[in-house]
Amino acid sequence: MQRVSTHEVSRGFLITAGPTHEPIDAVRYIGNRSSGRLGVALADEAARRGTPVTLLLGPTHLLPSRPGVDVVRFRTTADLERLLMERLPRCGTLIQAAAVADYRPAVDIASGEGGKLRREQRSLSLTLEPTPDLLAMCAARRRPGQVLIGFALEPLDRLRESALSKLQRKDVDAIIANPLGTMEAATIEAEIFLRGGGTWKTEGAMSKEAFAAWLLDRLPTIAPR
Ligand code: CTP
Questions:
Q1: Which of 14, 50, 57, 154 lies at a CB distance of 3.0 to 4.6 Å from 162, suitable for a disulfide?
Q2: Taking all residues of the chain, what is their mean pLDDT, rounded to a whole number?
Q3: What is the pLDDT of residue 1?
């Protein structure tokens, strides 16, 4: 196995991307429409620059095109939580681009019949429980010098207010705020809110690949907490 020096590990990126799938039974799940495209573009761009990068990638058909990206797959929020706890200590920068579920089925409602729910003539209720806030968990465990970045996908009229609240609530160094329509689009128009009060804004919409380069150019100027 190739050994990585402490210096390399501390400047390495840990990037999460894609949706989570929370199982309802053996064949059904609660998911979301994230494609993972932005996180994949960020991982490709980091690898292109020669930075060590691990991509924790959810259930999507997209894959990075650069061979240098270390890809680890996840399906559920619980999988992602375990991977983050394992990998966080070794990274320099975490970019949490994954669209993590806010709720998941609370109990296994289909333990009988081989794990598949059967249709019956009565209505069915699904009880959901909140998932843990993984980004806030990472922030609570951060080592000195680590930079943590999250996203806020919100309606346009609430972008600023919501990004500022997430910045504080999750205790991270930057929140990349973008409107709801970004989720399935090829382009992104974003405003980045920094700990300490600064902001960066893209000049209009750009492709997610161009945005990845734009963001990575600016990241070294973020001073960690
Ligand atoms: N996030 C996370 N764990 C969760 C939910 C979200 O790590 N259980 C991360 C997302 O990956 C993103 C950031 O937190 O980087 C903001 O996600 P968002 O869904 O907008 O925020 P929530 O914390 O879910 O808050 P709310 O939905 O109430 O606005």
A1: 154
A2: 91
A3: 46
